[in-house]
Design a protein that fits this description.
There is one protein chain. The protein is α/β, with parallel strands linked by helices and 290 residues long. It has 2 domains: 150 residues, Rossmann fold (3-Layer(aba) Sandwich), CATH 3.40.50.2020; 125 residues, 3-Layer(aba) Sandwich (Rossmann fold). The strands form 3 sheets. Strands 3-2-1-4-5-6-7 form a 7-stranded mixed beta sheet, with helices on both faces. The structure holds ribose-5-phosphate. The site of ribose-5-phosphate has 15 residues, from strand 12 and helix 6.
C-alpha cells in the first residue's frame, strides 16, 4: 500500500489518474449516482492511505454538485488519512471574493469554512481568478501557474512578432509573466463590466498591433463576452491572427461559436476542465506543488 492515495473525483478523473502516476500514488476511483432530486450518492473503490490522501475534484458546472462531491470526498478521506490535500484545479466561486455591491455575500469566505470543516489541511488550485479569496481560508493554500505549460504549446506555433494581450487590467500580471516566459511584449486592454447586467465593454482606444499575431491570455472563459469583445476590438486594429490561451474553458452555452465568429484562430485551455479545447496538461505542475 502506497503512503499516498489520490482520490479521483468524477469531475477530474483523467487528471487524477495522470497525477497518481506522476507521484506514484495508489488511485482510488469514485462512483457517483445522481438521484432525480439532484443529490449525489458517492461510493469509493479502493483503499485510502493512512498517511496522506489527495482529493482531486474541479468545481465547474454543475458547480454546487461538484462542490458537495469535493467536500464529501475530503470528509471521507479524513476518516482514514491523517493529512488530506484538496486539489481543486478549477476553483468555482473564485470570482465571488469581495463585496462588489452592498449586500453581496462573499462566497469564498463560506468555502474557506467548508473546506476546513470537511478536513482539508491544504488546498491546491490552478490559476485562480485572484488570490483575494484565499484571504478567507484558514488552511494552507497554493496557486499553481499553468503559464509554463501554455508557453510550450504557443512556442510550437512559431508566431512572428507575437504580442501577449490581457483583455483587462486585472490580468496584467498574468500577461506579464506569460510574455516573460515567451520572450515577447505584452499589453493589457481597458475592460469594464456592468456589475448588474454583466455587459462587457472595451474602453481602450487605438493601439498599434497591425500585422502582429496576438495571444489573448485569461484565467477563464465563461460566457465568452470578454474574449469576444477583446477580439472584435483587436481585429479592428488590423492585427493578424488571434489565439486564446485561457486556463479554464467553461465555454458556457454558445461561447465557443461566438469566439470563433469574432475571429479567434484557436483556443488553448488546460485540463482543469475537460473538453475539446483542453489540450494543455497541468498534472506535472500539480505534482511539483505536492
Ligand atoms: C474576469 O475578470 C476574468 O478574468 C475573465 O475575463 C472573465 O471572468 C471571463 O468571463 P466571460 O467569459 O463571461 O466574459
Amino acid at each position: 500500500m502506497s503512503k499516498l492515495s489520490v482520490i479521483a473525483g468524477k469531475s477530474s478523473e483523467d487528471l487524477a489518474k495522470k497525477l497518481s502516476r506522476k507521484i506514484k500514488a495508489n488511485l482510488v476511483r469514485s462512483e457517483v449516482r445522481i438521484f432525480d432530486d439532484g443529490e449525489s450518492k458517492i461510493t469509493l473503490n479502493g483503499e485510502i492511505s493512512k498517511k496522506r490522501a489527495i482529493v482531486v475534484q474541479s468545481i465547474y458546472p454543475p458547480v454546487d454538485t461538484n462542490l458537495i462531491q469535493a467536500l464529501s470526498l475530503i470528509s471521507k478521506a479524513k476518516e482514514t488519512s491523517s493529512e488530506v490535500i484538496a486539489v481543486i484545479p478549477y476553483m468555482g466561486y473564485a470570482r465571488q471574493d469581495r463585496e462588489f455591491l452592498p449586500g453581496e455575500i462573499i462566497t469564498m469566505k463560506v468555502l474557506g469554512k467548508l473546506f476546513k470543516g470537511a478536513g482539508a489541511s491544504k488546498i491546491i488550485v490552478v490559476d485562480i481568478h485572484s488570490m483575494v479569496g484565499f484571504k478567507h481560508f484558514k488552511l494552507k493554500t497554493k496557486n499553481v501557474s499553468a503559464i509554463p505549460e501554455f508557453v510550450q504549446y504557443i512556442k510550437k506555433l512559431s508566431l512572428k512578432n507575437p504580442l501577449v494581450v490581457s483583455p483587462d487590467q486585472g490580468g496584467i500580471q498574468r500577461a506579464k509573466e506569460f510574455a516573460k516566459e515567451l520572450g515577447s511584449e505584452y499589453i493589457a486592454l481597458e475592460k469594464t463590466r456592468d456589475r448588474k447586467t454583466g455587459r462587457v465593454q472595451i474602453k481602450t482606444k487605438n493601439i498599434d498591433v497591425a500585422n502582429r499575431d496576438l495571444i489573448l491570455v485569461d484565467d477563464m472563459i465563461s460566457s465568452g463576452g470578454s474574449i469576444v469583445k477583446a477580439t472584435q476590438f483587436l481585429k479592428k486594429q488590423n492585427c493578424k491572427k488571434v489565439y486564446v490561451a485561457c486556463t479554464h474553458a467553461l465555454l458556457m452555452n454558445d461561447a465557443e461559436k461566438r469566439i470563433k465568429k469574432a475571429g479567434v484562430t484557436k483556443i488553448f485551455s488546460a485540463n482543469t476542465i475537460p473538453g475539446k479545447t483542453s489540450i494543455v496538461d497541468i498534472s506535472n505542475a500539480i505534482a511539483k506543488a505536492i
